[in-house]
Amino acid sequence: MCSGRVSPHFVLKAFQKGADGVIIAACHLGECHYQKGNYLTAKRVDVLRDMLKFVGIGEDRLRLEYIATSESDKLSRSFTSFTEQIRTIGPSPIKRKEFARG
To answer: Which residues pair with 22 in a beta bridge?
Structure first.
């Protein structure tokens, strides 16, 4: 499935449901089977990051990685790195608000 099919709605819904972070893996720019899917994804992620920053969730909770299907090591490193980044940042502000209301 092309990263261009990842709707911003899905990303926002994940955060709304309490996700601490979202990572999107896309083909390298210029290597999309569907020609422009990864370019659309890059633009959407830029807009989503601005939106997440504006609402106080934080732009660093969303990551876009360009990974070819042959780069399984890079995929693994990216997931590990992002997981460590999210652990350092801590739980989503949305989650903290839910726990506070308890």
So the answer is: 62
| Helix ranges, the chain (H) | 8-16, 37-55, 72-89, 93-101
In order of 7, 16, 60, 74, 99, the CA distances from 64 in angstroms are 14, 19, 10, 13, 29
Tens-place pLDDT, residues 2-45: 888 899 999 999 999 999 999 999 999 888 777 888 899 999 99
Report the alpha-carbon distance of residue 82 to residue 48 in Å, rounded.
Answer: 17
Is the CB of residue 82 less than 8 Å from the CB of residue 21? yes
- Phi first, then psi, for residue 84 (nearest 5°) are -65, -40
Q: What proportion of the chain, given as a percentage, has pLDDT over 90?
A: 75
Give pTM, 2 decimals. Answer: 0.87
| Cβ-based neighbour number of residue 50 at 10 Å | 11
Under 8 Å between Cβ of 67 and 79: no
